[in-house]
Amino acid sequence: MLQISTKPPKRAVLVIFNKINLNILPFFDIEEKNAIQQRLNDGIQIIPYSKQQKTYFLFPLEIDLTAKPDNIHEKLRVQGNTIYKMCKEYKEPEISLEVLGDFGKEYIASILSGINLSDYEFLKYRTKPKGYSLTVHVDPLLVDEAVINELNLMAESVRITKDLVNEPVSFLTATQYSKEIQKIGEAAGFSVTVMDQKEIEAEQMGGVIAVNLGSSAPATFNILEYKPKKHKNEQPLVLVGKGVVFDTGGLSLKPTRNSMDMMKSDMAGSAAVVGAMYAIAKANLPYHIIGLIPAVENRPGYEAICPSDVITMYDGTTVEVLDTDAEGRLILADALHYAKRYKPELVLDFATLTGSAMRAIGKEASVMMGTADKAIKKKLRKAGGSTGERMVEFPLWDEYGDYMKSEIADLKNLGPMDAGAITAGKFLEHFTDYPWIHFDIAGPAYIPSNYNYRGKWATAYGVRLLFKFVQNQCKDDNTQPEKKSRNNAR
Fold first, then answer.
1. pTM confidence score
2. How far apart, in whole angstroms, are the C-alpha atoms of residue 466 and residue 460?
3. Which of 313, 291, 306, 304 lies closest to 205, judged by CA?
4. Hey, which residues does 18 pair with through a beta bridge?
């Protein structure tokens, strides 16, 4: 974590300086500076140098000010990860920051953000955990205390989301997930209402019920609400998250080798909603937000839904289920219909929905599509660019809707191999009558190898994006997006 401190540095110091001018390093004589210069010439990115019982981590910063600001800040966050790894290698528990030369506070904040976000390990199931954590002491003259507090809040919220996603289903059943959300809500200051299996059945949420039929554990439907007394938006922002705590594919068992190994992460979209609402509530942002999380297990139990079955969704639409591994859209559809009762200003859903999205753009961004106006999409791209949680917009042309028409029901849950991410989005669109954006985060949400400051496994994609979007909305006088009218209510 980051701490504001005016105390003199202890045994480890992080020194950020201008790469071109080594003369501004007051800690070293000419011979030492020559040795440092040689390391720079060899292309070493960060230089550890021990002197008088202190370790100096020398970071020669070089900023191309002609680059796009978002690219600069993302590069600096990634370089913060390099600093963190070096400190971990040297087993330094804390370092003090010194900045030599003229660098803007925003640049320093991005480096600190990269360090802070890198400081994560999931060690709950280690019998002898040997964790590492780094504290960075920062002079308030370098970075404002409010900025430090926000960076710490972001790191904390990301950790909460990562912990949820990294938990195995042996612990994090749908019921346990609801309990964890309630604890997080209590700590942050938002309410959590949990509908149990009987209430879900009474509501006739056909998608949620069908997906969970093969599991011996009950489903839940979680309603999170953060409503400060003085909120800027007249109508709530609704966040919907896919909460499949484990996905075997159901009777359409996942055929790809090792593909099931990562399926505890199929609730990453919902965990991003939880983490974002934690951050927003803790920061006391004046915005009314509702989170909807259907939580299920998709298992091939003896009562599991079968390919070719027809189910009736929460809004009355009949759906031919051609593939039980296309289950996420079924539970999201019910949640999207439930959202209509709030008459929302905007609905954003997050889901690890399709391999098609991942194959299209990889881990570098999510796929975005929806019916909200251009102004909202621009604001989302702005928030994504500033946080490094980028998105690529796909179209929702009417022709894609034809792919989802069934011969025996209103819709089918699976289209052809082509345009898989889009047809999934087109399926979801049917259940909306408000401004809406869908984020398919299958690529960036869970990565089986180290990926800079995002780490390994859960990345918590969406938490910082949503926080920044809401934060910007709170600063913007025009928060009400254009309403899209469709006669689709139940």
1. 0.95
2. 11
3. 313
4. 61
Q: What is the total residue count of the chain?
A: 490
Q: Strand locations in 363-456, DSSP E?
A: 366-370, 391-393, 411-412, 436-440, 446-447
Q: What confidence category does residue 356 fall into, taking pLDDT thresholds of 50, 70 and 90?
A: very high
Angle between helix axes 374-387 and 69-89 (nearest 10 degrees) is: 30
The answer to whether residues 226 and 238 touch, using CB atoms and an 8 Å cutoff, is no
Domains of the chain and CATH, by start:
2-137 (3.40.220.10), 154-475 (3.40.630.10)
Taking CA atoms, 85 is separated from 52, 118, 455, in Å, by 23, 8, 11
Q: What is the overall mean pLDDT for the chain?
A: 94
Mean of pLDDT values over 194-204: 98
Rounded to the nearest 10 degrees, the angle between the axes of helix 69-89 and helix 105-118 is 50
Tokens of 416: 């052809």
**CA–CA gap between residue 231 and residue 218 (Å, rounded):** 35
User: Of the candidates 285, 214, 482, 254, which has an alpha carbon nearest to the alpha carbon of residue 372?
Assistant: 482
Instruction: Look at 129-138, 180-189, 292-301, 335-344 and tell me which has the smallest mean pLDDT.
Output: 129-138
Query: Which are the catalytic amino acids?
Result: 254, 329
DSSP bridge partners of 14? 57, 97
Rounded Cα distance, 48 and 28, in Å: 13
Count the Cβ atoms, other than its own, within 10 Å of residue 91: 9
CA 421 – CA 440 distance, rounded (Å): 7
The encoded tokens of residue 337 equal: 């219909």
Give residue 356's Cα distance to chain centre. 19
Helix, strand, coil percentages in the chain from 3-state DSSP, rounded to 5: 40, 20, 40
